[in-house]
Design goal:
With 226 residues, this protein is α+β, with helices and mostly antiparallel strands. The protein contains eleven helices and five strands, in the order αβαβββααβααααααα. It has helices at 3-10, 19-22, 66-74, 78-84, 94-101, 103-106, 110-133, 138-157, 168-175, 181-198, 210-225, and strands spanning 11-17, 32-37, 53-55, 61-65, 88-92.
Length: 226
């Protein structure tokens, strides 16, 4: 069974992410598609294991095998958690429905470390662009701000909301380069501080619910084997 067949025939959850899911799409926005496929259990009984991820078959499409997806979600990977919370769902099977029902099990205070660590890395790249070219890549700056807004609100409320609609005008102004870098950088610093301030009193648990996720994976693999 080739990799693309796994995506075509065994996808349990598929959605659109990126600007279209964040409420930031414009006429030129791409359609970023993400999915989760369940590799049939017998494929793991070979020396040549099934892939942990697959690109395609469509442009801007990327899928993870279920176990890999869950492992990344337990680590509070921002891209994975946002995928789980996309409002634009293309496909969902009963296994996918159960995966979606576990969204809360993946959320924990670990999100603070992963989101802000990723943000810090992106911020360093933006600073490098400013030093080299006099300006950052404005689209990347916009998405970094959106990520920090999402992290702050997740820590404050315990819920991951990826819709940036309330900030759409301000964020798109950043994307168009209409906001001075100094103002953008100050907003990033403010949001990072707000994330730090929200962490001690966050309603999120310290760790994700590993046992619930492990039980789901075990049952799903056994059903696939049968």
């Amino acid at each position: 069974m080739d990799d693309l067949t796994l995506v075509r025939d065994h996808t349990v959850y598929a959605c659109v992410t990126g600007s279209r899911a964040f409420g930031l799409a414009t006429e030129t926005s791409d359609t970023d598609r993400r999915g989760v496929f369940l590799a049939p259990t017998p494929l793991f009984w070979r020396f040549d294991k099934p892939p942990t991820h697959v690109e395609g078959p469509r442009e801007e499409e990327f899928s993870w095998e279920l176990e890999r997806f869950c492992a990344l979600a337990l680590r509070a990977n921002p891209n994975i958690l946002e995928c789980l919370h996309s409002p634009l769902v293309d496909r969902v099977t009963p296994v996918g429905e159960e995966l979606l029902s576990l969204r809360g099990a993946f959320l924990s205070r670990r999100a603070h470390a992963t989101f802000t660590r990723y943000a810090a890395g992106q911020h360093r790249k933006l600073l490098a662009d400013v030093r080299l070219y006099g300006a950052p890549r404005w689209k990347h700056a916009m998405h970094l701000l959106r990520l920090l807004l999402s992290c702050r609100d997740l820590l404050r409320t315990g819920r991951l909301e990826i819709d940036a609609g309330p900030y759409r005008d301000r964020l798109l102004a950043v994307k168009r380069g209409e906001t001075a870098w100094e103002e953008v950088d100050a907003w990033m610093a403010c949001l990072t501080e707000e994330c730090e301030d929200a962490l001690p009193s966050s309603p999120l648990p310290p760790d994700p619910d590993l046992s619930r996720v492990a039980d789901f994976l075990h049952r799903t693999r056994r059903a696939s084997a049968a």
